[in-house]
Design brief:
heterodimer; A: 435 residues; mainly beta; Porin; Immunoglobulin-like; 2 domains; 14-stranded antiparallel barrel; 5-stranded antiparallel β-sheet; B: 225 residues; mainly alpha; 11 helices; 67% helix
Chain lengths: 435, 225
């Protein structure tokens, strides 16, 4: 067996092993998608079996995600792409939250060429009563191995809103709109006629934006690949306007998105002007789902990837499914919490298990956390867990979903707290050896 | 006529990055400073009073952690400083009363007994819990007691029922079973007092011996499904 095969098999097996042992500080979640994948771009086989593992390390204020995909062709496993992403989030203060995001990714578009990219971005979110919000931010993306593209400045803004409830007859829908502007220098060469870039002969004739030297001869700037051709540098800019809807009702999840790319003909190829895609997920159990979808993706000029149509159908196996939504949403109703359990884990920590469906976050807090919120990890479609150190004795605990109001968990004794609210009471027994 | 010089791309990029970084770090820096002192979000007079009460509790051998927890809960709930001080004072008073009723017991028992008093039970009712078998815990009994009063069971009825069960040697499982049955009846619309009276009649005072007793592991802590 070849080394990549062994590595992929090990990673795949590891992702299905229950991973949470970290207690309060950090949790690990993971999933694997596997299925048939068809694509029109010609850089991967037209139809191939594809495996996409993903793993996420979560702390209250930091997320690190690693995911990738590999496809099986001619009895060989071929890596397709991979990304490692880190997000640091500040606490929410008066509805305002800041994020710092860093990504390092690789996309392999054939067996000999891979493109790498590192990008850093900051965002500021403003939340409106947990049912909607806006964000804005900016950053820099640095592509590697694409000699004709400089670092790109990225500025984005977006808004989101949620209507309905998952438990309602027609479920809930989250709508998101984003506007992202890319600005970068592109070296257009006379020999360049790829679909992701444009004909240099024409591009070099275009007047560059104010302040940017247009049609600068580049022989002096590039000593390697670009030095041998006639080329010019020009400032490129395009902007993507995207809208998406995620609808969730019972075991069914549907996501549809569409977009339009603004920019002149030298920066945007005709096949990347508009795109749409859709996907569906049907949960068979808490941890197994059938997934399917397809559509069209625009070109990624920074990665040198052309526009493509794709279709996929497969199975998702998740020890702990990852959140599919990029924005926080809210369903602040106690009735959604179906059950609450707390028992001693083999590690000696107390394991909190909550069943609540159709929410994005579940938090608990109590005297054991000095009344600071602790975020549970999603372990199944409606299963949330967290292991925390709790000393023996009587403890107070409250729970909230999607940042809504705090409330006593169901199924445990409840008392009035000192501030006219309600709080759950739970007795943690001493270990048998201590009794 | 002024000539506008082109701004170098690198400068624009640096400004954009610096600006967004500053925006992102402002809330982080302010929150990090506050987290050093858990009471830092209280106004100065309230913080001073709470700290005084915590120190007094320590000196008196009362569980000061319970007082600090009350203050931190109030802060988390964004309650006014005066209300937090009042709540901590009240908690201090309940702890003192519980100590007087129960005698020298552990911090956990005192805290649980204070919650019973806060729910509305009379201090005299706690005296029955002074005498206990070695190793027997009254935490579950106190928790259920406080819950029953909170749910609207008449205080005297709840006190009598819990005290009787305790004196009859009921274990945690019996207390929890009683609570589970009563709360189910209340949720179905039965009067809380009636629900307790109905269920207490069918509740055994002492845990059945032998194989009928559920395994230890299943009794650990509490849960709902």
């Amino acid at each position: 067996m070849t080394e990549p095969k062994v590595a992929i098999l090990i990673v795949t097996a590891a992702l299905l092993v229950p991973a949470s042992r970290g207690g309060l500080a950090a949790q690990l979640v993971s999933k694997i998608d596997a299925g048939q994948y068809s694509v029109s771009d010609g850089v991967v086989p037209m139809s191939t079996f594809r495996v996409s593992p993903a793993v996420q390390w979560l702390t209250p204020y930091a997320h690190v995600t690693a995911r990738g995909s590999a496809y099986l062709t001619d009895q060989q496993v071929q890596l397709a792409d991979g990304i490692v992403s880190g997000t640091f989030t500040s606490p929410t203060v008066y509805g305002v939250r800041a994020e710092m995001i860093g990504n390092a990714s690789r996309a392999v578009d054939d067996r000999s060429l891979g493109t790498d990219q590192v990008d850093v971005q900051t965002r500021v979110h403003v939340l409106f009563h947990q049912h909607g919000g806006v964000w804005f931010g900016g950053g820099v993306a640095r592509p590697w191995r694409i000699a004709v593209i400089s670092s790109a400045e990225v500025a984005d803004a977006g808004a989101w809103g949620k209507i309905g409830e998952t438990t309602a007859r027609f479920g809930s829908a989250t709508m998101t709109a984003t506007f992202t502007n890319f600005s970068f220098s592109k070296i257009a060469s006379l020999g360049d006629s790829g679909s992701a870039t444009t004909s240099a002969a024409s591009a070099c004739d275009v007047a560059a934006p104010s302040g940017v030297a247009s049609s600068t001869p580049l022989r002096a700037l590039f000593s390697e690949s670009a030095a041998s051709v006639d080329a010019c540098s020009r400032q490129s800019r395009f902007a993507d306007l995207e809208g998406s809807v995620h609808w969730e009702a019972g075991p069914l999840e549907l996501t549809a998105q569409t977009g339009h790319r603004f920019g002149n003909a030298y920066d945007v190829t005709p096949d990347s002007r508009q795109w749409s895609s859709a996907s569906a997920t049907v949960w068979l159990t808490d941890r197994v789902a059938i997934i399917g979808g397809g559509g069209r993706q625009p070109a990624l000029p920074l990665r040198g990837l052309p526009a493509r149509s794709y279709g996929m159908a497969g199975l998702e196996i998740a020890y702990s499914p990852m959140s599919k939504s990029a924005v926080p949403v809210s369903l602040p109703h106690a009735v959604l919490v179906h059950s609450f359990e707390m028992h001693t884990a083999p590690s000696g920590l107390q394991k909190i298990v909550i069943h609540v469906g159709g929410v994005e976050t579940v938090d608990v807090m109590g005297d054991f956390s000095d009344w600071s919120p602790l975020t549970l990890v999603r372990r199944g479609r409606d299963l949330w867990e967290l292991s925390v150190p709790v000393s023996p004795g009587v403890h107070q605990i409250n729970v909230r979903v999607d940042g809504g109001p705090w409330m006593a968990p169901p199924g445990i004794p409840t008392v009035r707290d000192a501030f006219d609210g309600e709080v759950g009471m739970i007795v943690v027994q001493a270990p048998k050896s201590d009794r | 006529m002024s000539i506008r010089r082109p701004v170098p791309v690198a400068n624009v990029r640096a400004r954009v990055l610096l600006g967004t970084l500053l925006l992102a770090t402002l809330p982080i820096a302010s929150v990090a400073a506050q987290e050093l002192d858990p009471l830092s979000k209280l106004d100065a007079p309230s913080k001073f009073t709470v700290q005084l009460l915590v120190d007094s509790a320590q000196a008196a051998g009362l569980p000061s952690r319970a007082l600090m927890s009350t203050a931190l809960e109030g802060i988390a709930m964004k309650v006014d400083g005066k209300r937090i001080v009042a709540a901590v004072r009240r908690e201090y008073s309940f702890l003192q009363t519980a100590r007087a009723s129960l005698g020298p017991v552990g911090d956990e028992e005192l805290t649980a007994a204070a919650s019973v008093l806060e729910a509305g039970a009379k201090p005299a009712a706690l005296v029955a819990f002074r005498a206990r078998q070695n190793g027997r815990s009254d935490l579950e009994a106190f928790t259920i007691w406080a819950d029953l009063i909170t749910r609207g069971v008449p205080k005297e009825d709840a006190s009598t029922a819990i005290t009787k069960l305790w004196q009859d040697g009921a274990d945690d499982a019996i207390f929890h079973s009683l609570w589970n049955n009563v709360q189910t009846d209340i949720l179905q619309g039965l009067n809380p007092g009636t629900a307790l009276q109905n269920r207490i009649r069918e509740t055994p005072g002492r845990a059945p011996p032998g194989p009928g007793k559920p395994p230890e592991g299943q009794q650990e802590n509490q849960s709902s499904k």
